[in-house]
Amino acid sequence: MATILRSRDTLNDQHDKSGATGVQAKMSQVTLPNGNSLTEIRGLWDMSVYLGIDVGTSGTKTLAIREDGHILASSTVEYPLYSPNPGWSEQNPEDWWQATQQGVAEVLNRGRIKPKDVKGIGLSGQMHGSVFLDKSHQVIRPALLWNDQRTAAECEEIEQRAGGRKALIKLVANPALTGFTAPKILWLRNHEKRNYDRTVQVLLPKDFVRHRMTGQFATEVSDASGTLLLDVKKRCWSKKLLGLLDLDLSLLPKVYESEEVSGTLSETGATALGLPVGVPVVGGGGDQAASAVGNGIVRKGVISATMGTSGVVFAHSDEVQIDPEGRVHTFCHAVRDKWHVMGVVLSAGGSLQWYRNQLAQTEVASAAAMGVDPYELITAQAAQAPPGSEGLFFLPYLTGERTPHADPYARAAWIGLSLRHGKAHLARAVMEGATYAMRDCLEIIQSMKIPVREIRLSGGGARSEFWRHLQADIYGKKVVTINAAEGPAFGVALLAAAGTGAYKNIVEACDATIDVVTTTASSSANQKIYNNLYPSYQRLYHSLRQEFRSIAELIER
Fold first, then answer.
1. CA 123 to chain centre
2. What's the pLDDT band for 46 if we cut at 50, 70, 90?
3. Do 342 and 333 meet the contact criterion of CB atoms below 8 Å apart?
4. Is the separation of the CB atoms in 326 and 169 below 8 Å?
């Protein structure tokens, strides 16, 4: 028996939340009296494994966890993004499915996971994207993505058909934005009528992968909220808006709650993934709601600030709370019968990524020689400039902006340059500008009387100690990080565990697996500086708004 125990020690070489190694912890509680059968002992090695699959913009991430949240293995498979015209953003949905198959195979192999141990799958993905399928369930054209800006005219059409912006917000809790799904459907009807006439089903990215897995047409409330076609309050499709837009309800899939089982692996799906037929697939969540679950944002007062390529400030709400100006989104949460309010910055960490790629080649080369991440050198350089960058501001509108301006024509700019400014100031101003934009979101959420007791950071802005301090200073509040840093994939893996019975609900799952690990307080001196500068940052957009549109018109001529 001792030989068997030692051979299994390698299954879990990390520690779970209790501090004990998963398998060893179980074995230490078991005595082995004479007469115990080998079958009974082997039963201790049976694991319940849950897969979380996040169909992202740059790649699909697959994650395997144990019931206690311990991560067994992960994989990320990348694929291309296409921009056939300025402002257009498309991907091939089949790339997502191929990446899912590869990711699942890699995770099973890396984690030494037996396919039979997989008890549930959760799906997440980039929100708002539109996959158009014909009557044979084949993809008609490349999918239009969340950051595609071609639908400004269709947004105006939707608001007009709905009776105005305020009437639309009353119907579906949100205004029409270029990133949303409904304008994309109308764009297809207006510009590719032949393709529109062939369309019998419209799916979101993760739900296309679900269809390949299960054969079912299904979505869930958090992702469906971002189509602009969901009655967010009632958590079902808005038949009234569909009627006003002359869209048939049959185009849209059935809506589930996020932890509800939406289907099981079909023979075709199971064969493609190397898993048993019948594995449950839960609703899952749009990437932001799923990421919030992965950060434990499942009760009021706890807010997340995710500084990835885009930036998101996310607040849980027990009720439907709507900004009458439509500056933030009100969507269904991935927590059953709950909602969330979310502000979105289109180029948050993406602004620093642009700076790295375009203006920090020296730092990139030095980092390669030193064997470190280029961002370490860039942030160290930024830290050399004083708070406020000596009056230099950066507007982070590289791809337009969503919160609070909802302006696809907005553009990025440094403002306030002088002979005193060098690269340190440029880098710091970019980081400050992205964080000011996140504060824009936070300010609106607080104006809606949503309590903010704790801000949990995630994304690249959470990994940098300098950026953690910068966020604390600009938000004017302490910020924390948690033990889970795997984002949406972790969140939907927890949803899979909750939805298949490992936990009573997703709140219990988060409480059992997520803890705060670091706390960063704001500096009162820096906070004062940023409070004085922030109103100037806010005014700059309004001063330049008309110029942004004029520039866009000049380029389009």
1. 12
2. low
3. no
4. yes
Let me know if 287 is a catalytic residue: yes
Residue 460 — very low, low, confident or very high, per pLDDT cuts 50/70/90? confident
Judge if 151 and 112 occupy the same domain: yes
Query: Do β-strands 131-133 and 201-203 pair in parallel, antiparallel, or remain unpaired?
Result: antiparallel
Residues 41 and 103 in one domain: no
CA dist 54 and 294 (Å) reads: 12
Q: What phi, psi does 263 have (nearest 5°)?
A: 165, 180
Rounded Cα gap, residues 75 and 102, in angstroms: 9
> How many distinct structural domains can be found in the chain?
3
Among residues 150, 146, 153, the alpha carbon closest in space to that of 131 is found at 146
Residue 280 contacts residue 499 (beta carbons within 8 Å) = yes
Task: Please report, in angstroms and rounded to a whole number, the separation of the first and last CA atoms in the chain.
Answer: 79
pLDDT digits over 472-493, tens only? 999 999 999 999 888 899 999 9
> Which of 203-207, 231-235, 367-371, 486-490 has the weakest average pLDDT?
486-490
519 three-state secondary structure = strand
Question: Within a domain: residue 289?
Answer: yes
Instruction: Read off the pLDDT of residues 340-358 as tens digits, 9 standing for 90 and up.
Output: 999 999 999 999 999 999 9
Q: Are 239 and 249 in contact (CB under 8 A)?
A: yes
Q: Are residues 94 and 239 in the same domain?
A: yes
Is the domain of 452 the same as that of 551?
Answer: yes
What are the phi and psi torsion angles at 379 (to 5°)?
A: -70, -35
* 145, 29: one domain: no
- Which helix H or strand E contains 543, and what residues bound it? helix 524-556
Inside any domain, residue 334: no
pLDDT in tens, 303-329: 999 998 889 999 999 999 999 888 999
Burial degree of 543 (CB within 10 A; 0-12, 13-18, 19+) = exposed
Q: How many CB atoms are located within 10 Å of the residue 519 CB?
A: 12
CATH of the domain at 439: 3.30.420.40
- The parent domain of residue 133 ranges over 49-296
Whole-angstrom distance, CA of residue 104 vs CA of residue 88: 30
Whether residue 60 sits in one domain with residue 28:
no
Q: Is residue 368 a part of any domain in this protein?
A: yes
**What token pair was written down for 81?**
């993004």
Tell me whether residue 149 is in a domain: yes
Evaluate the omega torsion of the peptide bond into residue 404 and state whether it is cis, within 30 degrees of 0: yes
99 C-beta neighbours (distance < 10 Å), count: 23
Mean pLDDT for 496-525 is: 95
Q: How far apart are CA 91 and CA 338, in angstroms?
A: 32
- Residue 16 amino acid letter: D
Res. 12: pLDDT tops 60: no
Catalytic residue among 287, 323, 440, 473: 287
Q: Higher-confidence residue: 15 or 463? A: 463
